[in-house]
Recover the amino acids of this structure.
């Protein structure tokens, strides 16, 4: 009985060991240890070189390292294969540009013998004197705003119809400026007599006079200077689309209904008066 009991425990144990061994042969587990990756800076400008470096632990003969860089839109910007040094270190230099190189956060992933590690960095593309386009939603409709920025990147653009304002949310990595070309049909600032008035400009919530502006028949252009670390630039005008917001629309509907009801009652009263005169 004792021998049978020992065998009954030994057999499942042997089966377990055999199963683990079989799985390890089908999907070998890496023994290289930890893979690391980093960049020499957390943010870069258009002319900068991104220096990527890291370690792979134990080096395996003829085993290459895969580097993948993904842009802010999730598209693969660069994929390359390199050999780590004999001490397990590696380095890789990269420059970003072109249509696949917009401003934003880039992801770096390195893979060595099935072990991966990731890091990220931010990149600010150069406009090279060319305007870029931002989309802002106002009253459920999208409008296009042309802009240029130096010293940072535009994160998003929002509008507040109750404050007659347009806000550029930015990530300023150094002192710079943002130029906004605002169609008059979207937002404008008017004074007495319908003449152009100055916009009110706020940088990080504080009033600023450190800006210039110009105008054409169709647009108002502002160039606003900001310091490193600025996150918000706000422009306040005197009117912004839509001219009739949701509340105004409700008031208009009520007014129309009221007019119809009043007209109906007036018509009935006229018929009564007419009947009295006929009698």
């Amino acid at each position: 009985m004792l021998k049978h009991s020992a065998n009954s425990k030994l057999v499942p144990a042997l089966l377990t060991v055999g199963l683990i061994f079989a799985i390890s042969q089908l999907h070998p587990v890496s023994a290289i240890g930890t893979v690391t990756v980093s960049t020499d800076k957390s943010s870069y400008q258009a002319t900068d070189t991104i220096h990527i470096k890291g370690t792979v632990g134990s080096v395996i003969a003829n085993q290459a390292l895969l580097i993948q860089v993904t842009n802010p839109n999730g598209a693969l910007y660069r994929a390359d294969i390199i050999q780590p040094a004999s001490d397990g270190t590696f380095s890789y230099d990269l420059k970003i540009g072109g249509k696949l190189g917009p401003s934003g956060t880039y992801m770096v992933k390195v893979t060595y013998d099935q072990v991966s590690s990731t890091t990220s960095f931010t990149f600010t593309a150069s406009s090279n004197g060319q305007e870029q386009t931002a989309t802002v939603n106002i009253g459920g409709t999208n409008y296009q705003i042309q802009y240029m920025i130096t010293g940072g990147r535009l994160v998003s653009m929002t509008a507040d119809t109750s404050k007659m304002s347009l806000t550029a949310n930015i990530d300023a990595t150094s002192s710079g400026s943002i130029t906004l070309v605002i169609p008059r049909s979207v937002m404008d600032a008017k004074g007495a007599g319908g003449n152009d008035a100055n916009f009110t400009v706020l940088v990080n919530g504080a009033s600023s006079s450190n800006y210039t502006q110009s105008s054409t028949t169709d647009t108002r252009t502002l160039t606003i200077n900001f310091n490193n670390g600025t996150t918000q630039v706000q422009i306040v005008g005197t009117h912004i689309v839509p001219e009739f917001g949701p509340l105004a629309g409700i008031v208009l509907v009520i007014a129309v209904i009221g007019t119809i009801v009043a007209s109906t009652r007036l018509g009935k009263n006229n018929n009564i008066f007419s009947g009295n005169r006929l009698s």
Notes: The longest helix spans residues 246-278. The two ends are 124 Å apart (CA to CA). Residues 23-30, 244-249 have pLDDT under 50 and may be disordered. DSSP finds two helices and 18 strands in the chain.
